[in-house]
Amino acid sequence: MKMRKVPVWALKPGMKVARPIYDSRGALLLNSGVEIKKEYVHNLQIIGVPAVYIVDNIIPDVEIEDIILDDTRQKAKRLINDIAREARRQPGKKSVPRLILENKGIKNVLKEIIDQLLTNQNLIVNLADIRTADSYTFAHSVNVAVMAILTGISLQVPRSRLPCIGIGALMHDLGKIRISTNILNKRGKLTHAEFEEIKKHPRIGYEMFKTQRGCMDVASALMIYQHHERMNGSGYPEKLKGEEIHIFARVCAVVDVYDALVADRPYRAALQPHVAFQILESSGEEFDIEVLRSFFQHIAAYPIGTFVGLSNGFIGIVTYNKAGFPLRPLVRVLCNKEEFEPLKPFELNLIEKINVVVEKVYRADELPESISQGTGVFS
Predict the structure, then answer these.
(1) N or C: which end of the chain has fewer CB within 10 A?
(2) DSSP letters of 52-66?
């Protein structure tokens, strides 16, 4: 599907949905092909949908695909939702129902994810998962699982161990089931007491998870317990350092932070991928360097459909990203930066043009309509 991500506030009647939108329970809100109406925009804003992928007029010849099938992603979200709902029905218990690891649905969906990732020839994340305000936890868990497995593949973790990464990543925030939603969804800054409460979730999740006798993998459990530990000892709950932290937990730590940064949260808007890159790169000694390097190889700093300003004076739109070169996309030049004067579009491969770099990322409303919406000479 040829598509481009557009913030809900920038949607205009007549645009067509390119990628289905679901609510927190997995129910379909708007299917692909549906034409946007004014009332749809209003309803999406109320529900808390931050953006929509629309059929693109600017780069209609460019395919953009998720690294896993949408059906697989939705299936995983529903399973996580079911586990959380079942656990909340037993608030007095420290354990969770034995459906976590014994549930064939979880094993099957992880097999689907792993198989799809292993057969993809250009593993690079160009698509952001669109989440409603109340579906963050489930979508985040699935995203972390997919990207943690992807990083594991990059680190050459054996195929037989990838499900352990998947289980630990899917369940890394399990303990938040026992944390007040008023704290989890607070819009303002957390108080010291509230943050101390949040910091309990790795231990709570670990205690809940380890009740799965006979089918619990120690590495998965350690991912849950240690995903907030940091290489320099600044994390929690044990202030572990370096090799004291399990390698799978070090993977989860990186992916968890990245996915949280690029998602809309109650207290701030989503950051653009290149900004999240910069934050992780400048994190000093908090994260495993080798894990960071492996992770970055497969995440597009400038996803397909991103408007970018180049150091050679041109503005264009990203049309392709190659795994291993996250900061060097293929750009279709559309105009110059001085007067936004339209040009006959041409491709510029930044992998080959090493003297040209991306200097700026543009929002749609910062560009003339003829460029940002594909009207005029680009239609």
Answers:
(1) C
(2) EEEE-SSSTT-----
Cβ proximity of 43 and 23 under 8 Å: no
Q: Which domains does the chain have, with CATH numbers?
A: 3-55 (3.90.105.10), 70-296 (1.10.3210.10), 307-378 (no CATH)
Q: Is 366 helix (H, G, I), strand (E, B) or coil?
A: helix
pTM: 0.88
What are the CB-based long-range contacts (under 8 Å, 24+) for 28-33? 32/1
Tell me the helix, strand and coil percentages in the chain, rounded to 5: 45, 15, 40
Give the residue from 81, 209, 69 showing the smallest Cα distance to 138: 81
pLDDT band per the 50, 70, 90 thresholds, residue 210: confident
Q: What is the mean pLDDT of residues 268-294?
A: 92
DSSP letter (8 states) at residue 159: G
| Contact (CB, 8 A) for 287 and 280 | yes
List, for residues 362-373, the tens digit of each pLDDT value.
987 788 877 776
Strands across the sheet with 330-336, in order?
342-349, 330-336, 314-320, 307-310, 358-362
Whether the ω angle into residue 237 lies within 30 degrees of 0, i.e. cis, is yes
DSSP code of residue 34: P
Give the separation between CA 289 and CA 232, rounded to whole angstroms.
12
CA distances from 29 to 23, 36, 256, 338 (A): 6, 12, 27, 41
Tokens standing for 63? 């395919």
Tell me if residue 83 falls in helix, strand or coil: helix
Decide the pairing of beta strands 307-310 and 51-55.
unpaired
